[in-house]
TrEMBL record:
Name listed for the protein in its UniProt record: DUF3100 domain-containing protein
Record keywords: Membrane, Transmembrane, Transmembrane helix
Membrane-spanning intervals of the chain: 7-26, 32-52, 64-81, 101-119, 156-181, 187-209, 216-239
Keyword Phosphoprotein among record annotations: no
Keyword DNA-binding recorded: no
Organism this protein belongs to: Acidaminococcus intestini
Length: 265
Protein backbone atom coordinates (compact mmCIF):
# COMPACT_ATOMS: atom_id res chain seq x y z
CA UNK A 1 0.00 0.00 0.00
CA UNK A 2 2.98 2.35 0.57
CA UNK A 3 4.59 1.77 -2.81
CA UNK A 4 4.16 5.26 -4.28
CA UNK A 5 5.76 4.36 -7.60
CA UNK A 6 3.22 1.56 -8.11
CA UNK A 7 0.21 3.79 -7.40
CA UNK A 8 1.50 6.58 -9.66
CA UNK A 9 2.14 4.18 -12.55
CA UNK A 10 -1.28 2.56 -12.14
CA UNK A 11 -2.96 5.96 -12.10
CA UNK A 12 -1.16 6.95 -15.30
CA UNK A 13 -2.25 3.68 -16.96
CA UNK A 14 -5.85 4.34 -15.95
CA UNK A 15 -5.77 7.91 -17.28
CA UNK A 16 -4.26 6.82 -20.62
CA UNK A 17 -6.74 3.94 -20.98
CA UNK A 18 -9.71 6.19 -20.18
CA UNK A 19 -8.49 8.85 -22.62
CA UNK A 20 -8.43 6.23 -25.37
CA UNK A 21 -11.99 5.31 -24.36
CA UNK A 22 -14.29 2.63 -25.71
CA UNK A 23 -13.61 1.76 -29.33
CA UNK A 24 -15.93 -0.36 -31.43
CA UNK A 25 -15.86 -1.53 -35.02
CA UNK A 26 -17.98 -3.87 -37.08
CA UNK A 27 -16.91 -7.28 -38.32
CA UNK A 28 -19.62 -8.68 -40.59
CA UNK A 29 -22.88 -8.72 -38.61
CA UNK A 30 -20.99 -8.49 -35.32
CA UNK A 31 -19.31 -5.69 -33.46
CA UNK A 32 -16.05 -5.79 -31.48
CA UNK A 33 -15.96 -3.49 -28.46
CA UNK A 34 -12.54 -2.67 -27.00
CA UNK A 35 -12.73 -1.44 -23.40
CA UNK A 36 -10.19 0.61 -21.39
CA UNK A 37 -9.49 -2.47 -19.24
CA UNK A 38 -7.79 -4.12 -22.24
CA UNK A 39 -5.60 -1.07 -22.94
CA UNK A 40 -4.55 -0.88 -19.28
CA UNK A 41 -3.55 -4.55 -19.32
CA UNK A 42 -1.46 -4.18 -22.47
CA UNK A 43 0.25 -1.04 -21.13
CA UNK A 44 0.94 -2.89 -17.88
CA UNK A 45 2.56 -5.78 -19.74
CA UNK A 46 4.97 -3.41 -21.48
CA UNK A 47 6.07 -1.85 -18.17
CA UNK A 48 7.40 -5.17 -16.83
CA UNK A 49 11.12 -6.11 -16.64
CA UNK A 50 10.88 -8.16 -19.84
CA UNK A 51 10.03 -5.04 -21.88
CA UNK A 52 10.52 -1.42 -20.71
CA UNK A 53 11.60 -2.40 -17.18
CA UNK A 54 9.62 0.43 -15.57
CA UNK A 55 8.00 -1.89 -13.04
CA UNK A 56 10.53 -3.89 -11.01
CA UNK A 57 9.93 -7.20 -9.26
CA UNK A 58 8.93 -5.38 -6.05
CA UNK A 59 6.15 -3.43 -7.81
CA UNK A 60 4.87 -6.63 -9.42
CA UNK A 61 4.72 -8.43 -6.08
CA UNK A 62 3.02 -5.46 -4.38
CA UNK A 63 0.48 -5.23 -7.21
CA UNK A 64 -0.43 -8.91 -6.90
CA UNK A 65 -1.22 -8.42 -3.21
CA UNK A 66 -3.79 -5.74 -4.08
CA UNK A 67 -5.83 -7.87 -6.50
CA UNK A 68 -8.24 -8.97 -3.77
CA UNK A 69 -8.95 -5.37 -2.73
CA UNK A 70 -9.65 -4.20 -6.27
CA UNK A 71 -11.95 -7.16 -6.91
CA UNK A 72 -13.91 -6.28 -3.77
CA UNK A 73 -14.54 -2.78 -5.15
CA UNK A 74 -15.56 -4.23 -8.50
CA UNK A 75 -18.08 -6.60 -6.89
CA UNK A 76 -19.52 -3.68 -4.88
CA UNK A 77 -20.09 -1.84 -8.15
CA UNK A 78 -21.87 -4.89 -9.55
CA UNK A 79 -24.12 -4.91 -6.49
CA UNK A 80 -25.36 -1.41 -7.31
CA UNK A 81 -26.37 -2.65 -10.78
CA UNK A 82 -28.14 -5.76 -9.52
CA UNK A 83 -30.23 -4.12 -6.79
CA UNK A 84 -32.62 -1.99 -8.91
CA UNK A 85 -33.54 -4.93 -11.18
CA UNK A 86 -33.67 -7.59 -8.45
CA UNK A 87 -37.29 -8.71 -9.17
CA UNK A 88 -36.43 -9.53 -12.79
CA UNK A 89 -33.28 -11.33 -11.74
CA UNK A 90 -35.14 -13.43 -9.15
CA UNK A 91 -37.67 -14.49 -11.77
CA UNK A 92 -34.78 -15.70 -13.94
CA UNK A 93 -32.78 -17.27 -11.10
CA UNK A 94 -33.23 -20.95 -12.19
CA UNK A 95 -31.68 -20.15 -15.55
CA UNK A 96 -28.86 -18.22 -13.89
CA UNK A 97 -28.03 -21.17 -11.62
CA UNK A 98 -28.42 -23.96 -14.19
CA UNK A 99 -26.18 -22.21 -16.70
CA UNK A 100 -23.20 -23.05 -14.50
CA UNK A 101 -23.39 -26.65 -15.74
CA UNK A 102 -22.54 -25.28 -19.17
CA UNK A 103 -19.07 -24.42 -17.91
CA UNK A 104 -18.30 -28.16 -17.79
CA UNK A 105 -18.09 -27.91 -21.56
CA UNK A 106 -14.68 -26.32 -21.00
CA UNK A 107 -13.48 -29.64 -19.58
CA UNK A 108 -15.03 -31.82 -22.27
CA UNK A 109 -13.58 -29.75 -25.10
CA UNK A 110 -10.40 -28.37 -23.53
CA UNK A 111 -8.84 -31.53 -22.06
CA UNK A 112 -8.74 -33.62 -25.27
CA UNK A 113 -7.41 -30.65 -27.26
CA UNK A 114 -4.75 -29.82 -24.65
CA UNK A 115 -3.48 -33.40 -24.53
CA UNK A 116 -3.57 -33.61 -28.34
CA UNK A 117 -1.37 -30.49 -28.60
CA UNK A 118 1.15 -31.94 -26.17
CA UNK A 119 0.29 -30.39 -22.81
CA UNK A 120 0.71 -32.68 -19.83
CA UNK A 121 -0.14 -31.73 -16.23
CA UNK A 122 -0.63 -28.15 -17.47
CA UNK A 123 -3.89 -29.48 -18.89
CA UNK A 124 -5.40 -29.78 -15.39
CA UNK A 125 -4.99 -26.09 -14.60
CA UNK A 126 -5.72 -24.85 -18.10
CA UNK A 127 -8.84 -26.84 -18.99
CA UNK A 128 -10.80 -27.32 -15.75
CA UNK A 129 -12.43 -23.87 -16.07
CA UNK A 130 -12.06 -20.53 -17.82
CA UNK A 131 -9.31 -19.81 -15.25
CA UNK A 132 -10.44 -16.68 -13.47
CA UNK A 133 -9.44 -15.46 -10.00
CA UNK A 134 -11.30 -18.11 -7.91
CA UNK A 135 -9.88 -20.87 -10.11
CA UNK A 136 -6.36 -19.54 -9.69
CA UNK A 137 -6.86 -19.61 -5.93
CA UNK A 138 -8.20 -23.18 -6.13
CA UNK A 139 -5.31 -24.47 -8.24
CA UNK A 140 -2.83 -22.60 -6.07
CA UNK A 141 -4.23 -24.22 -2.92
CA UNK A 142 -4.53 -27.70 -4.45
CA UNK A 143 -1.32 -27.94 -6.48
CA UNK A 144 0.62 -24.68 -6.00
CA UNK A 145 1.13 -22.01 -8.64
CA UNK A 146 4.79 -22.96 -9.19
CA UNK A 147 3.73 -26.27 -10.74
CA UNK A 148 2.62 -27.41 -14.22
CA UNK A 149 -1.01 -27.05 -13.09
CA UNK A 150 -0.28 -23.54 -11.84
CA UNK A 151 1.39 -22.56 -15.11
CA UNK A 152 -1.59 -23.91 -17.00
CA UNK A 153 -4.17 -21.88 -15.08
CA UNK A 154 -2.08 -18.70 -15.21
CA UNK A 155 -1.51 -19.08 -18.94
CA UNK A 156 -5.24 -19.32 -19.63
CA UNK A 157 -5.94 -16.46 -17.22
CA UNK A 158 -3.63 -14.09 -19.09
CA UNK A 159 -4.77 -15.29 -22.52
CA UNK A 160 -8.40 -14.94 -21.49
CA UNK A 161 -7.91 -11.39 -20.30
CA UNK A 162 -6.18 -10.31 -23.52
CA UNK A 163 -8.08 -12.29 -26.15
CA UNK A 164 -11.22 -13.27 -24.23
CA UNK A 165 -12.57 -9.73 -24.14
CA UNK A 166 -12.32 -9.44 -27.93
CA UNK A 167 -13.77 -12.92 -28.47
CA UNK A 168 -16.71 -12.39 -26.10
CA UNK A 169 -17.58 -9.02 -27.59
CA UNK A 170 -17.54 -10.43 -31.10
CA UNK A 171 -19.43 -13.61 -30.14
CA UNK A 172 -22.15 -11.66 -28.33
CA UNK A 173 -22.62 -9.40 -31.33
CA UNK A 174 -22.84 -12.30 -33.77
CA UNK A 175 -25.33 -14.19 -31.57
CA UNK A 176 -27.46 -11.07 -31.18
CA UNK A 177 -27.39 -10.47 -34.93
CA UNK A 178 -28.82 -13.97 -35.52
CA UNK A 179 -31.99 -12.93 -33.71
CA UNK A 180 -32.43 -16.37 -32.12
CA UNK A 181 -31.71 -15.47 -28.49
CA UNK A 182 -33.29 -12.85 -26.27
CA UNK A 183 -30.84 -10.08 -25.25
CA UNK A 184 -31.37 -11.01 -21.57
CA UNK A 185 -30.31 -14.60 -22.33
CA UNK A 186 -27.15 -13.38 -24.04
CA UNK A 187 -26.37 -11.09 -21.11
CA UNK A 188 -26.80 -13.99 -18.68
CA UNK A 189 -24.61 -16.21 -20.83
CA UNK A 190 -21.83 -13.62 -20.75
CA UNK A 191 -21.46 -13.97 -16.97
CA UNK A 192 -18.96 -16.82 -16.86
CA UNK A 193 -16.99 -15.46 -13.92
CA UNK A 194 -14.79 -12.96 -15.78
CA UNK A 195 -15.45 -9.26 -15.28
CA UNK A 196 -13.57 -8.26 -18.43
CA UNK A 197 -15.26 -10.84 -20.68
CA UNK A 198 -18.70 -10.06 -19.26
CA UNK A 199 -18.15 -6.31 -19.64
CA UNK A 200 -17.05 -6.74 -23.24
CA UNK A 201 -20.08 -8.88 -24.14
CA UNK A 202 -22.57 -6.66 -22.31
CA UNK A 203 -20.93 -3.58 -23.81
CA UNK A 204 -21.44 -4.98 -27.29
CA UNK A 205 -25.05 -5.88 -26.51
CA UNK A 206 -25.69 -2.42 -25.04
CA UNK A 207 -24.53 -0.86 -28.31
CA UNK A 208 -27.02 -3.02 -30.21
CA UNK A 209 -29.86 -2.61 -27.66
CA UNK A 210 -29.33 0.83 -26.06
CA UNK A 211 -32.87 0.87 -24.63
CA UNK A 212 -32.01 -2.24 -22.55
CA UNK A 213 -28.51 -1.17 -21.49
CA UNK A 214 -29.20 -1.03 -17.73
CA UNK A 215 -31.11 -4.33 -17.65
CA UNK A 216 -28.42 -6.07 -19.72
CA UNK A 217 -25.71 -4.82 -17.35
CA UNK A 218 -27.71 -6.04 -14.36
CA UNK A 219 -28.30 -9.52 -15.79
CA UNK A 220 -24.69 -9.82 -16.84
CA UNK A 221 -23.43 -8.69 -13.42
CA UNK A 222 -25.81 -11.01 -11.53
CA UNK A 223 -24.83 -13.97 -13.69
CA UNK A 224 -21.16 -13.14 -13.27
CA UNK A 225 -21.46 -12.97 -9.47
CA UNK A 226 -23.34 -16.27 -9.31
CA UNK A 227 -20.69 -17.88 -11.52
CA UNK A 228 -18.04 -16.62 -9.15
CA UNK A 229 -19.90 -18.07 -6.15
CA UNK A 230 -21.28 -21.44 -7.25
CA UNK A 231 -18.65 -21.80 -10.00
CA UNK A 232 -15.95 -22.38 -7.39
CA UNK A 233 -17.90 -25.24 -5.82
CA UNK A 234 -18.65 -26.61 -9.28
CA UNK A 235 -14.90 -26.64 -9.95
CA UNK A 236 -14.08 -28.32 -6.63
CA UNK A 237 -16.71 -31.07 -6.76
CA UNK A 238 -17.23 -31.68 -10.49
CA UNK A 239 -14.90 -29.89 -12.90
CA UNK A 240 -11.53 -30.65 -11.29
CA UNK A 241 -12.22 -34.37 -10.62
CA UNK A 242 -13.66 -34.70 -14.14
CA UNK A 243 -10.56 -33.01 -15.58
CA UNK A 244 -8.23 -35.39 -13.74
CA UNK A 245 -10.24 -38.41 -14.94
CA UNK A 246 -10.49 -37.23 -18.55
CA UNK A 247 -6.79 -36.28 -18.62
CA UNK A 248 -5.78 -39.84 -17.72
CA UNK A 249 -8.13 -41.30 -20.34
CA UNK A 250 -6.82 -38.97 -23.03
CA UNK A 251 -3.22 -39.85 -22.11
CA UNK A 252 -4.06 -43.53 -22.54
CA UNK A 253 -5.50 -42.78 -25.99
CA UNK A 254 -2.48 -40.73 -27.09
CA UNK A 255 0.44 -42.43 -25.31
CA UNK A 256 -1.01 -45.88 -24.67
CA UNK A 257 -0.70 -45.58 -20.88
CA UNK A 258 -1.10 -43.18 -17.97
CA UNK A 259 1.99 -40.98 -17.84
CA UNK A 260 4.39 -41.38 -14.94
CA UNK A 261 5.71 -38.39 -13.02
CA UNK A 262 9.00 -38.62 -14.90
CA UNK A 263 7.22 -38.58 -18.26
CA UNK A 264 5.17 -35.55 -17.23
CA UNK A 265 8.25 -33.42 -16.59
Amino acid sequence: MKNIKLHVCVMLMIVIAELIGVKSFSVGPGKIVLLPMLYALIIGIFTTPRFLNIMKQKEMEDASSLIGLTLMLLMARYGTLVGPTLPKIISASPALILQEFGNLGTVLVGVPLAVFFGLKRETIGAAHSIAREPNIALVGERYGLDTPEGRGVMGVYISGTVFGTIFFGLMASFCAALGIFHPYALAMASGVGSASMMSSAVGALAVMYPQMADQLAAFGAASNMLSGLDGLYMSIWLALPLTEYLYKKCCIVKYGHVLTKEEEQ
